[in-house]
Amino acid sequence: MLTVRAAVGLVAIFAIVVLVENASWVMRSTVNKGKRDNSDEIDRLLQLLRHKARGELSSSATKRSVAGTGTPTPAKKSIKPPLPPPISPKPKKLPPPRPIRNNTYSAINENTKIGYTRSIDLSRDIERIAQGWDINIKISDNPKQATCSSPPGMNEYQEGKKMLHAHKKKKKHEFTPIDLANNIRSLHEEGVLEFHEVEGSSIPSTVNDVPILDTHNGKFSIFKSWGDRKLWKNLHWIEDPEQRHHEKKLPNAIPEQPPLWVAIAYNGWTNQGNVFTCDYALTTGACLWEMSNYKKPKKKFTKILALCDSWCRGYFHFAHEHLPRVAVVHQALLDDPDIMITVPTNRDFIVSYFHDVLGIDKKRLIGTTTAAADVLYYPQPQPCGSMWTHGLMLLRKIVFNRHSILGSNDPNTFLVVLAERAGGQDGKSRNPTNYQSVKQRLAEAQYPTARKVVFESSLNKTILEQIKVFYKADMVIGPHGANLANIMWMRSGTSVIEFMSYKYGNLCYYVCAQRVGLDFRFVMQPSDKGGAYSVDFDEIKRHIDDSILRSEGMPALEFT
Known about the structure:
The chain is of the alpha/beta class. The chain has 12 helices and 21 strands.
């Protein structure tokens, strides 16, 4: 048994160890709250304290009675441990390299050199060049035959053969738009599918113009972080190009766009716009982030255009993410009535787009469920909530030429289209609570122009009538939502005012406006996307006045 003195000694030593560990925790907690300038020295001192405590423990005069004799056990001599070597300072984590920029929006970082072109200038050039684009799609006379009766499971494709489209942040198993095009081109070189692209249609990196915001009231600033929605958190612009810090924080910087292309697969299946064969799987892209599991097909067709997923039921997602994909295969659809199209058949606007606008028989629309086909057309997928510039411009060329829309606007009229939502009374369907009174005051106001200022609603019009009225519009005004989707048909150089939630912060219409070359303007509101808010008549009036002055070459108002 331990003697009283030995027990007291052990208790004292235990207390020292506890005190040292508590001191360590307190000191570390304090250091973590500061800048950790002296962290290396503190760590060394703490180690010395621990070694000292262990040394005292080994030198304790603990005496144990030898069994049967009562003779105390002699105390062991303490052996002081050697001092620990000094701790080398930890390497500091360097911040990411800051791009070097100049007024031409060129950027240099450690990996690549990125040259930026203003997207509004580029969009006008692309629309002009697209008039001469042509693509000749050929089908192989001796396609590769299927080696399986049904496609493998989603996890059974070989590495690199399940081709998912990267979205906001590239994951390990996903492909960037450039890599996706290159990988599918390699399948063409292997002889397993056809790959056709429009020569000279790739688009360099671009930078969008910063939206115009009337900040005379001092309520909002797009040069500060805004938006609490996870996808857009800390979204902001930097006013001076040389002060931009990193590419990921630039909502107005767009990476290089691949050339316009279409692939043709043989003896495969499609589900939700994805294309499956025995050897590879191709994503539908857009907002369908993962491929759906294969289901037994209900029907087999000779030829299919694999186009839509379930998101196509929404007007915006169909018009912006999938409709432009039709442009590259439109002539093939007109030439070959055997090509069926996978789109939802229970949406009137989809039927109208194909039948009334593009001249495709609605009997060729077959839904988005699983189907098998000998030949599957797979046009270039697009990003979620966005569109490729060249696909949009080719689509505009097709629609404007088919319906003689170019030049149909009246130069003696400044047309303001009110992009209204069905059921949109005051405070309903994302409308401001004072919408009707502001609308009435705008119609009665005086404007700085000799032209007649006309206001027209976008409601109660067919799809083709909507396309025509948005083309004629000099300005479009409306809350965030699919009611603004038709700005894709506006003339380059015209203006858009969006009532934007400062909290929600979804920039899909800003991106579209930059693709077309529109003058984009924000009227910020502090509520959620569907919350109650009001708008300032004077603020909207200033935007209209400024747009009129700019369109007539007059000095613009002061905006930031």
